[in-house]
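LAB NOTEBOOK - FOLDING QUEUE
OPERATOR: T.R.
BATCH SIZE: 2
PURPOSE: Compare the predicted structure-token outputs for two unrelated chains run back to back under identical settings.
PRIORITY: normal
REVIEWER: second-year student, initials M.K.

ITEM 1
FIELD SEQUENCE / FIELD STRUCTURE:
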Amino acid sequence: MSELTALTIAGARDGLKKKDFSAAELADAHLSAIEEARALNAYVLETPERARAMAKAADARIAAGNAGPLEGIPLAIKDLFCTEGVRTTACSHILDNFVPAYESTVTAQLWRDGAVLLGKTNCDEFAMGSSNETSYFGNVVNPWRRKGANTPLVPGGSSGGSAAAVAANLALGATGTDTGGSIRQPAAFTGTVGIKPTYGRCSRWGVVAFASSLDQAGPFTRTVRDAAILLRSMSGHDPKDTTSADVPVPNFEAAIGKSVKGLRIGIPKEYRLDGMPAEIERLWEQGRAWLKRAGAELVDVSLPHTKYALPAYYIVAPAEASSNLARYDGVRYGLRVEGRDLIDMYEKTRGEGFGAEVRRRVMIGTYVLSAGYYDAYYLRAQKVRTLIKRDFEECFKAGVHAMLTPATPSAAFAFGEKGGADPVEMYLNDIFTVTVNMAGLPGISVPAGLDTQGLPLGLQLIGRPFDEATLFSLGEVIEQAAGRFAPRRWWAR
């Protein structure tokens, strides 16, 4: 049955169509794999009964000739997406046992197209983290290990559970959310493909909010083609979400294999950081060579306000988090800790319900929005954000089709290795990814090689607004040149 879990979405789709196996067999193979891999802590809730029922219905539709684009494809869903009748907690104690009475738009579209729910995946609490070490349900363990070592490594965050599930063959694909790199960074750390689409491409309705002007849903898969397949089902205008863009959704899969000859690829000089590891620089150089060999034209570009992106992001995101998380007060749903009066109940509930990182960001956000500091911090950060967006616009106006950068400043690191005494050390993991969110652009991380310790590294492609198709074409060039990587299955006993 392990052969079934090693399939791609495209391969499983073809196998189901030819009746080489059934959706029920495919679901059962993944459910067995999940049981064997609980040491990874990738899932916080498994839904075997629902998976089998959905797979049975998929088989019936296939037999009747009514198969959808994702018919019978087993997926994992980040615990930030509300799923009707299935516990959704954002991996926070404050949302203990919350069971939504509604379905997020993104997951509703996946089920509409025939996908099968395997369970909810672990993530950093309220998506706040770069290593999946802030979850109330404990750390997710990266399926990858350093060569000759057994030190547990982080899978990246916040969507670490989804990334680990796809990398370890515990799902054919998974959903994630990306606020400052939370799809692309864990994708790079786990050797998977992860795309953050243009802001507004996927509806945010029914997704637990972190920072509303930055959050965007996207897929994790093992190949670029699979990411294109999954994103098509996840995308589309949603009247329930006022930030959802009313633009056509192309057949992204048609971009796979399309020639990239003549495309102008920008290489931003600001991404060459002091002290950047030599192997990251070599990987970037290799990526440039692959694209040039495929016919793309490489041009040096400048994004002068990139150096301000990280500090501006860590003002804007906590400010929006502070506002969004005000709704968790112990009154209507989730955890309630009784107090002497209403104010005491609020304080005790929020103090006990939120973890340390969430409390830190709420306090930062409340501070920068407070009287006397709003203009000095939040308003200034928003002005910087406009300048960051303008930098990209100038490059695209000059004829650049996409940009190539590293995805992360390093490979996966060990638990507790970063951010212990200084949280800024952890925040620096987002240095290559936050500009994309600040500008609302699409970005994809594609596995591009292994470091000297045998860990995966990713390259990032940044595209023009709503031009994810070009990223898929370019990403497939890198994928074909680099080959595919899989971790050693140390967790399967």
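ITEM 2
FIELD SEQUENCE / FIELD STRUCTURE:
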Amino acid sequence: MYGRDLGVPDAASLREALIRDGIKNEAVLDAVVSVPRELFVPAAFRERAYENSPLPIGLHQTISQPTVVAMMTEALDLNDRSKVLEIGTGSGYQTVILAKLCRRVYTIERHKPLQAEAETRFQRMGLHNITVRAGDGSKGWPEQAPFSRIIVTAAALDVPATLLDQLDEGGIMVVPVGLEENLQHLLRIRKLDGDIETEDLGPVRFVPLISDEDPA
């Protein structure tokens, strides 16, 4: 599930490479290809923007590889009515792709410098369906709940109960679970008629989800 090396110097061949890695949803492919990843990485890494690998964005955080971004987005099964909660804005790359496919994105980033940089990018790109705030993403955004979709871009020890409570009936959550880097799995959670269905989408590797309540 880590994906293969894209082997492309720019976005021109990205769509074909993602299809080879199993991405089928045409709207997701269009959205990923349309977003210039080089705008979301530090200048020192722009030549590597289209490598199929995570890249550092500062403060011990990373931008996920394109295959994982596309896979998580596809798993959400978005439509133009979807109200999405994103935990972990990071550089805003995943956020922008979500914004192209849904009605509104509410996104939380615990690191204020990253939150501010991402918000500036959204403004420059003329995106008006994204609301950003800095804070503890593990607590979700109760004032705006429920959400039809929730995406978590950091690995939790288990499926976060607080976020599950904020997921609407019929909703989908995509979350990596497992704190050991080599033992993380991406889960798709569906809330149906009060029951929870869990699907394992395979191994992934993410930075850990940090709560304000975690010991320093």
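REVIEWER COMMENT (ITEM 2): The domain at 11-203 is CATH 3.40.50.150 (Rossmann fold).
FOLLOW-UP: none requested
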